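Appendix C: a fully annotated inverse folding record. The material below is reproduced so that readers can follow the format used throughout the book. The structure is listed first as tokens, followed by the designed sequence.
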């Protein structure tokens, strides 16, 4: 099956966190699914830095052609953002939008340049890339920086607020830039190959001598959208395209909101999705042995993310899937279930694995 498995890997890496002083919490979950490798990563920090305690940062990175760019970005982006010096504890509310926009632009481009000078890239050994979608939250604003086709949306009184728009090669402005840099859009892909028009890494598409870094056929330069925070804001969802391939933005908002208000949905077993394509042993007449499913995770924001991923798997998503739900209104916090043990997780290794990844470091660490 090429880059796909015979049956999906449905084990998940899941984590949750809360900052009561901000009235904010998050859940994150990531699943390999049908793909032969897991190439996603993520980050979540309630404090961007010890000197910037009022700023929070969340991000999802969807790697392709390998996982190194996604992992490097999750591990190093925060320091690049802080080093711009544009974000300060004394910023006035009216300064947040312009400063954050410039900081995201400088940090993403400097990180991309840093990766381009790595030995593994210069030697041609690493040709991977990654999309990036991030939200920076202050007391007054939500600033989203997007590079590629991962996406962020917000629920405001149940209505979907788009915090990003996908960067596809066939979008008129993207196509114009690609062609000016000597590239082509064929089969809706850059040079008939890459399905996104903006990404970190992918340096084979950044070699036009007459275009600066922002104007290469594929660029890391972000599109930045800012929303002023409102008392009607409920939650933010950041996810890779494995989610958006099978659900619209409003459908995701509706699904997450329903789970937050009504609790765990009753869903058929995941085997129904996995059985859409038989395993190799089943196809040859053998018996396909699957381990029993793990007990359900306690009902928290991590479980909400897991249920969204499972729902998308049933809808036919065949990509890696990573989701972060950032709760902005504590009234929407998932209610404990009757008889819940209060500490169950999807596999004991689930939280441990998440904690060991670059994106799941201690969220409130400086």
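Designed amino acids, in order:
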């Amino acid at each position: 099956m090429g880059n796909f498995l015979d049956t999906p890997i449905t084990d998940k890496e899941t984590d949750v966190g809360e900052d009561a002083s901000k009235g904010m919490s998050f859940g994150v979950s990531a699943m390999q699914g049908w793909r032969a490798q897991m190439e996603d990563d993520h980050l979540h920090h309630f404090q961007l830095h010890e000197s910037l305690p009022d700023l929070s940062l969340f991000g999802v990175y969807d790697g392709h052609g390998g996982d190194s760019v996604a992992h490097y970005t999750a591990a190093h982006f925060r320091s690049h953002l802080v080093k711009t010096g544009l974000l300060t504890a004394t910023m006035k509310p009216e300064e947040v939008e312009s400063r954050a926009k410039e900081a995201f632009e400088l940090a993403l481009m400097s990180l991309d340049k840093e990766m381009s000078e790595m030995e593994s890239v210069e030697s041609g050994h690493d040709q991977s890339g990654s999309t990036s979608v991030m939200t920076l939250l202050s007391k007054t604003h939500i600033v989203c920086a997007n590079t590629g086709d991962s996406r962020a949306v917000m629920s405001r009184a149940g209505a979907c607020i788009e915090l990003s728009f996908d960067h596809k090669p066939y979008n008129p402005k993207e196509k114009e830039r690609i062609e000016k840099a000597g590239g082509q859009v064929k089969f809706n892909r850059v040079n008939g190959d890459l399905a996104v028009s903006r990404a970190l890494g992918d340096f084979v598409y950044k070699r036009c001598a007459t275009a600066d870094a922002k104007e290469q056929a594929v660029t890391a330069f972000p599109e930045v959208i800012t929303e002023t925070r409102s008392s009607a804001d409920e939650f933010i969802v950041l996810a890779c395209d494995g989610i958006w391939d099978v659900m619209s933005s409003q459908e995701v908002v509706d699904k997450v909101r329903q789970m937050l208000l009504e609790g765990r949905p009753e869903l058929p077993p995941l085997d129904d999705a996995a059985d859409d394509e038989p395993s190799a042993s089943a196809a040859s007449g053998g018996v396909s042995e699957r381990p029993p499913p793990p007990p359900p995770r306690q009902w928290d924001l991590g479980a909400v993310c897991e249920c969204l991923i499972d729902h998308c798997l049933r809808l036919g998503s065949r990509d890696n899937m990573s989701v972060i739900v950032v709760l902005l209104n504590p009234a929407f916090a998932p209610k404990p279930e009757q008889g819940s043990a209060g500490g169950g997780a999807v596999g004991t290794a689930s939280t441990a694995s998440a904690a060991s990844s670059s994106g799941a470091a201690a969220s409130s660490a400086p």
